[in-house]
Automatic annotation (TrEMBL):
<dbReference type="InterPro" id="IPR027417">
    <property type="entry name" value="P-loop_NTPase"/>
</dbReference>
<feature type="compositionally biased region" description="Gly residues">
    <location>
        <begin position="1"/>
        <end position="12"/>
    </location>
</feature>
<dbReference type="InterPro" id="IPR027032">
    <property type="entry name" value="Twinkle-like"/>
</dbReference>
<protein>
    <recommendedName>
        <fullName>SF4 helicase domain-containing protein</fullName>
    </recommendedName>
</protein>
<feature type="region of interest" description="Disordered">
    <location>
        <begin position="1"/>
        <end position="23"/>
    </location>
</feature>
Length: 402
């Protein structure tokens, strides 16, 4: 499909313009079909945004079918990882499938490994002592294979926004996906910009077509877009909280996207040695239909909700909400634990703490990814010095739940 100039003229591709249609076809009366939809909404309620499975975030953002959600944030602040986790939660709790265009994270096996790492909380790398067992790796592979598809146009295939929509449509038709991720915007082919008179008219045209597509298909389309570099920005200094106006063509993004959010690490400039460097704030600057989707606001340290601590844990590749991952639950565990491990975990949940001896249970602890009795036992030379048959316990927050 080629782009039009917004006035009915054809701009690229050399194909003739489509035949003109009767202007009256654009007039939509309140006919019986429309009334049927209205009556259904009246009786059953309008479609509302669906939970992210992070209650603290749900107050500000929920997944609304037919919405175009734009997420901004400085490079390296964790936009991709945040959206991967949100999509994993959708897959875990509702079975929703996602198509991911994320060329910066290619090849495809790296993207799938990132998803497996976040799902299990363990690194799929045998060179690490806390690596994922192969049995778990295979189970997690089956889950990711069922719920995610990577989109990557090969040589000779287009990468314009409309090309990507055609690939997403193929994923909808072939795999039944409900969520599409375009990550990031600057990796898309924007060569049509000059023909449309510059970036702003191009953005108006393209964002209009993207939002029309989400409404027509009832897909949830998420786009990541980097903010513009600011004058005087230096390495090692704090950066401001980005919003829609921070992106090139900002006002157009603000006007046309259904949701504008930001992933922001306020203390990243302190370096990895600082405990604060992993702190994250999620800011929802614009949310259409507040009653159906959420109200603008923020969570995380130094936000509207400083009581909600949000940080990224590099070892588990998970976002932790008040020191607990939303993926620490049986709904996720069933997709990567072996039957024996799952039964043992279920038994542990059913037995009252008071009935367990100290050798069975330690309050507020959970086993790390260190090999345990359910894992394949490696040879002695492969074992770390502190390895034991039951794993190495680590202390968690008192409000940790199994």
């Amino acid at each position: 499909m080629a782009l039009t100039d917004g006035m009915g003229g054809f701009t690229a591709g050399g194909a003739p313009p489509p035949p003109k249609v009767d202007p009256a076809s654009a007039l939509l009366r309140l006919d019986e079909a429309t009334w049927g939809r209205m009556e259904h909404d009246y009786t059953h309620g309008r479609v509302k945004g669906e939970t992210t499975h992070i209650p603290e975030l749900d107050q500000h953002f929920k997944w609304m079918p037919g919405y175009c959600n734009v997420w901004t944030g400085w490079p390296g602040d964790g936009k991709t990882e945040f959206l991967y986790q949100l999509l994993l939660l959708r897959a875990t709790f509702t079975g929703r499938k996602s198509a991911i265009f994320s060329p910066e994270n290619m090849p495809a096996e790296h993207i799938y490994d990132q998803l497996i790492h976040a799902l299990t909380g363990q690194q799929p790398d045998r060179s690490l002592s806390s690596h994922l067992s192969f049995a778990r790796y295979q189970l997690a592979r089956d889950f990711v294979r069922e719920h995610f598809i990577v989109v990557y146009p090969g040589k000779g295939q287009g990468r314009t926004p409309l090309d990507l929509l055609s690939y997403f449509e193929a994923a909808v038709a072939k795999f039944g996906v409900s969520h599409c991720l375009l990550d990031p915007w600057n990796k898309v082919d924007h060569s049509a910009m000059a023909a449309l008179g510059g970036y702003e008219p191009y953005l108006v045209n393209v964002l209009g077509q993207l939002t029309d597509w989400t409404v027509d298909t009832k897909q949830s389309l998420s786009i990541t877009a980097h903010p513009r570099r600011l004058d005087g920005m230096k390495f090692g200094t704090a950066r401001p909280i980005p919003d829609g106006t921070s992106i090139a063509g900002g006002q157009t993004w603000e006007n046309m996207a259904h949701v504008i959010g930001a992933v922001y690490r306020p203390y990243r400039h302190l370096g990895s040695r600082s405990e604060l460097s992993s702190e994250v704030g999620i800011y929802l600057h614009k949310v259409k239909s507040h009653k159906l989707v959420g109200f603008p606001g923020s969570i995380g340290l130094d936000s509207d909700r400083p009581d909600v601590r949000l940080r990224y844990d590099w070892k588990s590749a998970r976002y932790l909400v008040n020191d607990r991952s939303p993926l620490d639950c049986r709904e996720a565990e069933q997709f990567y634990l072996t039957d024996a491990e799952l039964r043992a975990r279920d038994d542990m949940r059913r037995v009252p703490t008071s009935a367990l001896t100290p050798t069975d249970y330690q309050p507020n602890t959970i086993r790390t990814a260190t090999p345990n009795s359910f894992d394949d036992i490696p040879s002695a030379e492969q074992l770390p010095a502190d390895w034991s048959l039951n794993g190495r316990p680590i202390t968690l927050s008192p409000n940790t739940h199994f």
